[in-house]
Amino acid sequence: MNYRIEISPLPQWSDARGEGVRKQIAKFFGFPVEKVWSRDVYTVSASLTEEEARRVASLLYNPVLQGWRVGAAKSSNFEPLPECDYLVAVGFKPGVTDNVGRSARAAVGDILGRKLREDEHIFSSTEYLLYGPKLTREEAETIGSKLLANELIQSVLVLSGEEAANGIPLNLPMVNGRQGGEVHEYNLEVPDDQLLEISRKGILALSLEEMKAIQGYFRQAQNREKYGLGHNPTDVELEVLAQTWSEHCKHKIFSAKIDYENLENGEKQEIVSCYKTFIQKSTREIADKVDWLVSVFSDNAGVIDFNDKIDLVYKVETHNSPSALDPYGGAMTGIVGVNRDPLGTGQGADLLINVWGYCLGSPFTDEKDVPEGLLHPRRLRDGVHKGVIDGGNQSGIPYGNGWEYFDERYIGKPLVYCGTVGTLPKMVHGVRGASKTIKPGDLIVMGGGRIGKDGIHGATFSSEELHKDSPVQAVQIGDPITQKKLGDFIHEARERGLYRFITDNGAGGLSSSVGEMAELCNGCRMDLALAPVKYAGLQPWEILVSEAQERMSFAVPPEKIDEFRQLAKERDVEVSVLGEFTDDGKFHIQYNGRTVALLDIEFMHGGLPRLSLRARWKAPHFPEPDLSSRKAGEDLVAMMGRLNICSDEYKARQYDHEVKGLSVVKPFIGKCRDVAGDATVTMVEPLSREGVILSSAILPRYSDIDTYHMTASCIDLGIRRVVAVGGKIDRTAGLDNFCWPDPVQSEKTPDGEYKLAQLVRANQALADYTKKFMVPCISGKDSMKNDSTRGGRKISIPPSLLFSVISKMDDVTKAVTPDAKKAGDLVYVIGMTRPELGGSEYFAMLGATGNNVPKVDAERALATYRAVSNATDAELVHSLTTPALGGLGVAFARVAMAGRLGLEIDLGAIPAENCSELEVLFSESNSRFVATVPPEKKQEFETMLAGVVFAEVGKVIPEQKLVLRGSRGTEEIPLEALLREYKGTLDQI
Q: I need a surface site. Which of 136, 356, 393, 812 has the fewest CB within 10 A?
């Protein structure tokens, strides 16, 4: 039987969801919609009696706010909503993860006292009732397709009020399963153009050289007949190699041999692997000098020492391509996916904090400037935020750091960064918490969610530009509730020592996780028919490479499997034994006992031909803007409303940073807690004095001038933000996340050699400055080919490096925040200001780029950071902040706004080299701070800073205004004007 269960708001109460939709319609479309009601609908396709259906409905609603209706039956408080002008119904398409429906399915099972059968289903949908007599059907359809649903994964039904009154069709997105278990062979004995066509049609993202390497391997493969295989590869084998060799998984560009030449000075260098030459090598050199690196670049996340009980685990990932197609699902998958990285590190970490950051096009972009096939940045932003909120907070994890960066070049492909900090016990059941092993004979076990078509070709898809044929099946939707149960189960299994090895099923699914595990013990044998699937009809290759979420792979000793299974059953986590690890050198895959893939582990992981590329660097030059007629005060007020400076509090407050109750310095600080801080401080355990500092830095516009100095500036900014909250750099580590446009020279990328040179220079700076600061990279990721050709227009992102920083804080009670605390305090500027406006936010406001990009003097910076850390450790400052975008002008404004106190500043007293007053205010020179100091601590503070550049430049005043005294006179800027700009731009957006 099929039942429609309708859960409607009671008319006497307001409908917050419906009102939110009405506001969005008015703001973004201007359509004549006067009111919106929304209601939830569950379609139950199961063997239920009418009485059981009514009982289910009665337990799915809130009797205070809602009523229910099933056919003619209804709750005693049910009141039908008025007939609307148009109804828009939104549900998921067949096969797409429906988390609400999945939760309802579990609830119905509990209500009935039995689990629903495989052929019984519950589907969720949402109906929006639109009221507006002047609204047209076309406008209602636009609302449905461009605001309420993503038609890539959701169905939209629009009915007039009269049509809806005559009956609404049931939402039954059944998957019609075809016959599964089919295996096909590929004939690779074909001309080169046909080899490339096989790669293109199969979305394999393999080059001709790679296809020919595979062709050569199968020509020479031995003993395949013994396993029932011919000399042609099966679709399973080709898909495995495509996934294993994808840019996403193999990092082919970072591993390439590069012929680099600097055309400016004639420098030439042959680089074999940027990763090994710069990133890994610099970390190893630092590791020889410090004793707190535990596990770096060898596991799913980096691990550093914290205290005698636990280590810290940190990983930041990107999920750009899927988020471009489905912002909600892509971003949710990003956050739940990166949560699995610490879960799969060592013996399995406990999750502590999430971080997020997004590079997007402006939400105010004109519709006509968005190429066909791309989502509007506003809609994309809404979906990304909602996805990470639902994925992170529903997992019981607070956010500890978040940011947004806007540039029109991210319209083609957004950058969606998600990260997770975890804690790992030093010892677990007699073994090191950061260690993991596999022995031949250990069982291959998959736990968590089931396998579906979602995420198929995710690894190969994210290795290409976004184009009109990008596969929709690469989209996934995470289920944080299923993953939370899995995480709790892992914690218990870890404490009992029930597994030897754990890793997550991310890009490439079982092919990747089991393939990498098999490399450690030199072999595996796995039967895909034993894997649990969401629905019938999946082919073996789909089961193997699907990236369906919430799954982990384990190596379980045979003697522990019964206890492992029993615990999983008690915790309602599905686990399946798929095979065993071997040492025969083969990646051996079966389906119902029949061999469908047999690859040598050595070829699978080591047979990829190395790319050979050319990189040529020549510095660009840009015109310098005329600043002679600019007015500092007016420009500062305007700067506060810039998208990259203004407050994103409206979105950020929708996340929860108080889950677990461990936050010390929160994302928003100050008297009214409405100004973004420099970094956050979080206790690792309740009421502990030990804490962790998290900061981040991203400066894409500097890349327009020189990625070397962009990278150096990112490292410096990330580090000094740690210092700005009272931290020290002695126990500080970094994570590098490179997101780059296609840097491979080709017909469609004629400037590939220049873009590759930009990548080389960024890597050179990363090695140089991490070693100078003794801040090692402990983990990282690269995402290449962040370009879009949709709508016939190529859009490439600017070269972007996110440098995330994690640092131990010994005493969180000494944490400092930017807000001015007391009138009469003295204002100091620490560090030298230079005329470095190239790539700055100020020049961007003027439509310019400039040339003099900020640079880093590491020796001076180190001396400054140690002196400032000594001052905060001695508790000599009332407030401290570090200038970033917008320079000192924005920093002064933030100090004043946060404290709701004024500042009186003498611009002539600020330490500066050859700067105009505009340059003093808006230059983004590195390694600087603004501090407020109580007068009685003046002498002690200045003594502490002896040997570094600093000056007393003003004082905190009780009047709410920013007073700037310069050579042209005095400007007084009301705090109200600064706050209005700072808080207004993205308010309610």
A: 136
